[in-house]
Design brief:
The complex is a heterodimer. Chain A has one helix and five strands; from the N terminus they run αβββββ. By secondary structure, chain A is mostly beta strands. Chain A has one domain. In chain A, a hairpin with an 8-residue loop joins strand 4 and strand 5. The N terminus of chain A is likely disordered. Chain B folds into three domains: about 130 residues, no CATH class; about 180 residues, Rossmann fold (3-Layer(aba) Sandwich); about 100 residues, Helicase, Ruva Protein, domain 3 (Orthogonal Bundle). Chain B is built from 18 helices and 19 strands. Chain B has a five-stranded parallel beta sheet. Chain B has a four-stranded antiparallel beta sheet with strand order 1-2-3-4, with helices on one face. The chains are: A mainly beta, B alpha/beta. Chains A and B meet through helix 1, strand 4 and strand 5 of A and strand 5, strand 6 and helix 1 of B. Strand 5 of chain A pairs antiparallel with strand 6 of chain B, so a sheet runs across the interface.
């Protein structure tokens, strides 16, 4: 049985899948494109910059469900929503 | 984030959180014309394909410092805005799939995008920040040469698009035939621009073009030529036939009897014609584009399977979309439509391109994937136990060669110096549909070669 989405989106990263491409996706270009750390995607060899997970819906349906993305950012949201 | 759903190296869409307006939103965007670009060759459309208001179930910020994440505060780049945070967001997966299939016209790559963790053990869209080093090989120099030398490809496509509305698949497959020195059989009901597309392609090439209308009374000598007795010299002299051209359109090839088809197909295979004791080489490039009509079979002679195998591709030509149909109405509803194209390249350029196509890198894992596909057509019960009696004969080694070569050409057309598994998938139907011979049981059960190929591609693991 699928968990509630609110619990899923806030869950610990051990339940998420790091997005791998040859090696763990590192800090992309060590960039600061936006000039704001809360907009800067960061990562290193042990902390993936991008994680994903999928909350399966009806198992017999291929495209049912919700896909989640989690970005590792360099700072906190300011101002917070 | 840019998303490459079909693995061709080009971004097909974007997904993310937009905080530029008054109300933040999660969205799925198409490529567009705005300046906000990443990479620089691709931009993001101003209006999202679909957007979602932020709510607690689809949007979340949290510090990367909780017990669940290891219990240690993390600050990778040592910034001044405190420790790192996770931004998490979600979208209904069906919206992504619908976007790719309806807006981008992509066949969704089930092995990379369909989310069934319990079955496949993973679930995320294929995201390509960088090409896989193992699959792309060491080919930056070749990629540069392809980018420079292949500049004619979009020009030819654009020129053909002035005359042929839609039918992008057909145009792409004709170009693959041109680049691989492989012959193409086009099958579709009358009026789908098969002949027009071939003539449009011929118009963009400065090469010798000939068209044959195959009829029941056509003779081999009408195509190949013959020896004519010269009474003054008292000897036979050769009269070369119209097949000595660079680009041949064999229209309605199944309307002539077997001896004419054989004469044509022998010439296609050997790239030469023998008249009397002398063999004459056909010009290079030499490409046969044949058409046939799947309906209206009265008075036709079906091409034997062995002859079909000599065609690199058998392309099914489909009806245009509703939008394309409207464009056709606007463009062609006149008694004197413009149906000619301007020459863009010549035969020398084509041959140069073929050399580059031959150099396109195919990784060992991709080669194994090709062999797996071909082998599966011969041993279909390894894919689906019930298929054992459905196939009389699978694809020949010629199928292996052609699938590899065709995929190289497809990579070239897409501006890439290496073949991806998606190239193989995109070409598999056209390479294999005429090489899988179905049994009577299959025909009785309504199983088609298309369904067999679909099943093989869905079941085989993708490298």
């Amino acid at each position: 049985m699928a968990r509630s989405q609110a619990a899923t989106i806030d869950s610990g990263s051990s339940t998420w899948t790091p997005v791998l491409y040859a090696t763990t996706l590192p800090d992309p270009s060590n960039d600061q494109q936006t000039g704001q750390q809360e907009g800067d995607i960061v990562g290193n060899a042990t902390h993936s910059a991008l994680l994903t997970k999928f909350e399966e819906g009806t198992p017999s349906l291929l495209t049912d469900g919700v896909i989640y993305y989690r970005l590792h950012l360099g700072g906190e949201e300011n101002p917070p929503d | 984030m840019g998303i490459d759903a079909n693995g061709d190296g080009a971004l097909d869409g974007f997904i993310g959180v937009d905080n530029s307006g008054s109300a933040d939103k999660i969205g799925i965007w198409d490529a567009g014309t705005q300046a906000n670009t990443s990479p620089s060759t691709t931009s993001i459309a101003a209006t999202p394909y679909k957007s979602y208001a932020l709510i607690s179930t689809n949007y979340n910020w949290r510090p990367v410092a909780t017990v669940a994440d290891g219990g240690t505060s993390i600050d990778i780049d040592g910034g001044t805005s405190g420790t790192d945070h996770y931004l998490s967001f979600s979208v209904p997966f069906v919206d992504l799939v619908t976007y790719f299939s309806t807006v981008k016209g992509l066949t969704v790559d089930q092995n990379s995008t369909v989310c069934r963790p319990s079955v496949q053990g993973f679930c995320f869209l294929r995201i390509l920040p960088l090409p896989s080093p193992s699959m792309s090989g060491s080919t930056p120099e070749l990629a540069q040469r392809i980018a420079e030398q292949g500049s004619w490809v979009p020009q030819v496509r654009a020129e053909m698009a002035r005359v042929v509305v839609g039918q992008n698949n057909l145009v792409e497959k004709l170009l693959i035939g041109l680049l691989t020195n492989g012959h193409v059989l086009l099958e579709g009901v009358p009026g789908l621009a098969k002949t027009l597309a071939v003539k449009a392609l011929a118009g963009t090439l400065s090469v010798n073009f000939k068209r044959f209308q195959f009829t029941p009374d056509l003779l081999p000598a009408d195509l190949l030529g013959t020896l004519i007795f010269n009474p003054r010299e008292g000897e036979f002299t050769p009269k070369l036939g119209p097949i000595f051209a660079n680009l041949i359109l064999a229209d309605e090839v199944n309307r002539s009897p077997a001896k004419v088809q054989s004469a044509l197909l022998e010439a296609m295979q050997e790239k030469q014609v023998t008249l009397g004791d002398t063999t004459y080489k056909l010009p290079d490039p030499f490409l046969v584009l044949a058409t046939q009509n799947p309906i209206d079979q009265e008075g036709t002679y079906q091409l034997p399977e062995a002859q079909l195998d000599r065609f690199l591709l058998k392309v099914r030509v489909d009806y245009p979309t509703k939008t394309e149909e409207r464009q056709i109405l606007d463009l062609m509803s006149t008694s004197s439509p413009k149906l000619t194209t301007e020459a863009i390249i010549d035969g020398t350029k084509v041959i140069e391109s073929r050399h580059l196509v031959n150099e396109v890198y195919v990784d060992g894992s991709v080669k194994d994937y090709i062999v797996d596909i071909i082998t599966a057509t011969r041993q279909p019960d390894t894919i689906q136990p019930g298929w054992k009696n459905l196939i009389r004969a699978g694809a020949s080694p010629r199928g292996t060669i052609n699938l590899t070569l065709g995929s190289k050409a497809l990579a070239y057309l897409r501006g890439r110096a290496f073949v991806t598994p998606q190239d193989i998938k995109d070409l598999a139907h056209d390479i294999l549909r005429h090489r899988i011979l179905l049994s009577y049981e299959a025909e009785a059960e309504g199983v088609t070669s298309e369904a067999i190929i679909d099943g093989i591609l869905a079941k085989l693991p993708v490298p």
